[in-house]
Design goal:
Shape: globular
Distance between the termini: 61 Å
Oligomer: single chain
Number of domains: 3
Strand order of the largest sheet: 2-1-10-9-11-12-13-14
Structural class: alpha/beta
CATH superfamily of the largest domain: ANL, N-terminal domain
Strand content: 15-25%
CATH class of the largest domain: Alpha Beta
Helix content: 25-40%
Largest sheet: 8 strands, mixed
CATH architecture of the largest domain: 3-Layer(aba) Sandwich
Number of strands: 25
Length: about 550
């Protein structure tokens, strides 16, 4: 593995790795005749990438870009995104990936908040960017990706230098904003390289063999998973990132097989979609040794592994700290939401609302630090222009993740839910994820989101928003009763939905994370929504029957 030293930066590390592994595959894109770019597929070696990155650096440098500048990339999931990021970082430019699925208002917010100096955009998304800039007070230079070779407009302000140091910002990545305005996470060169080194050295079930792995990543490049976590791991180990445009159930296994993938990245939402495909003789006709991801529903974990023949290794990470904890040692705790134990360099506590240690087996918020002497080492540098939010997250010298977990006596951590997804009903804490996991197993349910709604007597009540599968019965009252009975039979009575709403669509991010705050308009009481079904009387009857 390419060693990380105190003075390592992304540019230095990349060029060293590319020289060592010159003949090996670096980036690949599976063939797809329906894709707008590289329909025939794409592959570039480490050696070839040296020349490409240096050419890109020359264009940026001639425009006067370097340390102190931020440039947005609106390039979809093209492999060129990663090559441009390397070129920018090598000069000290900070890369700000932009979400191609954002509407004008959302895109304008990021452009303005990050104070972008320039945006590189593919022609297909130019009108989208133009509409966003109408709403933005910041007006960056706009450069078409297809004409990049002609040069960059001169930077409005000169670069501080073109020689970054380890603490130079390499990226600003925006959180998904599931509870409000996204925050920009500042990630330094040191952070991104330490993430790659961490992933590359987890061993156990997730051992990376130098120069022999091809990691298929269907996740977007504007998030930390594909653009940092897997990318730098693969650079440091001389391996290849197979970057597709997005997850597609119908093409997934074809691309996995044709790309000769040995490692996969997944999100929990992908698992039921893949299991929902008819069993096929080629279900195990692949080279995959393991998959890394988070959020597989416990009821589906073993089922998936038995059918497709490789382990789904659950991890925990977030943009602010993605040196992920991982359940990578045998015997794993399949189907329990286990995601690993504290490690040297990632110390963990589970705390109550007063930040006191919660007893083992008790739910509490997970808080983290590197160590007592260097608590913030290898974490993100902070939230862009929001020191108050940064310090609040770090109160007491521990980073507060907002995730509710339990810790077993052997130190194994188990995910429960995000703090904001805990429903407080009559003194009982209900994890929305637990109700969602059960409902997701019902054959009539395509997608589900569970959230809290006010209740005048019990403080909060459980609301389940459900998208039905095609062909499911459409009698809303009947299906509501069916789903209530299903929940009531499978969990404590108080966890069953008191309200149920059947909808055609639940809003999600590009990574398929449900946007609960967008399901109902701001300021609207969901209970007043047309079509809302009140199940509280059924719940009351079930209580009295006990």
């Amino acid at each position: 593995m390419i060693p990380i030293q105190e003075d390592s930066t992304i540019g230095k590390t990349f060029f060293r790795a590319a020289q060592v592994h010159a003949s090996r595959a670096f980036l690949a894109v599976p063939a797809n005749p329906l894709r707008a770019y590289h329909p025939e597929g794409f592959e570039i070696s480490y050696g070839e990438s040296i020349d490409v990155v240096r050419e890109l650096m020359d264009v940026y440098a001639r425009g006067g870009y370097g340390l102190g500048h931020r440039i947005g990339l609106l390039l979809e999931n093209r492999p060129e995104h990663l090559l441009h990021k390397l070129a920018m970082n090598a000069l000290g430019v900070c890369c700000v990936p932009l979400n191609p699925d954002h509407r004008a208002r959302e895109l304008a917010y990021v452009v303005e908040h990050a104070r972008l100096d320039a945006v590189l955009v593919v022609e297909a998304l130019q009108s989208q960017l133009t509409a966003a800039l109408v709403e933005s007070c910041v007006q960056p230079a706009v450069v078409l990706f297809e004409r990049f070779g002609a040069g960059m407009p001169r930077a409005a302000q000169p670069a501080v230098s073109t020689t970054p140091v380890p603490d130079t910002p390499a990226s600003v990545l925006y959180t998904s904003g599931t509870t409000g305005r996204p925050k920009g996470c500042l990630l330094s060169h040191r952070y991104e390289l330490s993430v790659g080194a961490w992933y590359a050295t987890r061993d156990g079930l997730c051992t990376f063999e130098e120069g022999r792995e091809r990691l298929y990543n269907p996740l977007p490049l504007f998030h930390v998973n594909a653009s940092v976590y897997s990318f730098y791991c693969l650079i440091l180990t001389g391996n290849c990132q197979v970057q597709t445009d997005r997850f597609q159930t119908s093409r997934f296994w074809t691309e996995v097989r044709e790309s000769r993938a040995t490692v996969l990245h997944y999100l929990g939402v992908m698992v039921p979609m893949l299991l929902g495909q008819p069993p096929a003789s080629q279900d195990r006709a692949h080279r995959v040794r393991f998959a890394i991801g988070a959020g597989v529903e416990p009821q589906l974990h073993a089922l998936f592994e038995a059918r497709f023949g490789f382990p789904l290794v659950e991890i925990w990470g977030m943009t602010e700290m993605v040196r992920a904890l991982v359940d990578n040692q045998s015997p794993r705790q399949v189907g329990t939401r286990a995601f690993g134990r504290a490690q040297p360099g990632v110390e963990v506590r589970v705390v109550d609302d007063a930040d006191s240690d919660a007893p083992d087996g008790t739910e509490g918020e997970m808080v983290l630090r590197h160590s007592a002497t260097t608590p913030r080492q290898d974490f993100f540098s902070g939230y862009l222009d929001d020191e108050a939010a940064t310090e609040s997250a770090w109160r007491g010298g521990w980073f507060h993740t907002g995730d509710i977990v339990t810790r077993a006596v052997d130190g194994m951590l188990h995910f429960v839910d995000r703090r904001k997804n805990i429903i407080r009903r009559s003194g009982e804490n209900i994890a929305a994820a637990e109700v969602e996991a059960l409902l997701q197993t019902h054959p009539a349910v395509e997608q589900v989101a569970v959230l809290a709604v006010p209740d005048e007597i019990r403080e909060e009540e459980v609301l389940a928003c459900v998208v039905l599968r095609p062909g499911a019965a459409r009698d809303r009252a009947a299906i509501a009763r069916t789903l209530f009975d299903f929940c009531h039979a499978g969990m404590a009575y108080y966890k069953a939905p008191g309200w149920l709403w059947i909808t055609d669509r639940i809003p999600t991010t590009a990574t398929q994370k449900i946007q609960k705050h967008q399901i109902f308009a701001q300021g609207i009481d969901p209970r007043t929504q047309a079509g809302m079904i009140d199940l509280r009387e059924l719940k009351k009857r079930s209580t009295s029957a006990r």
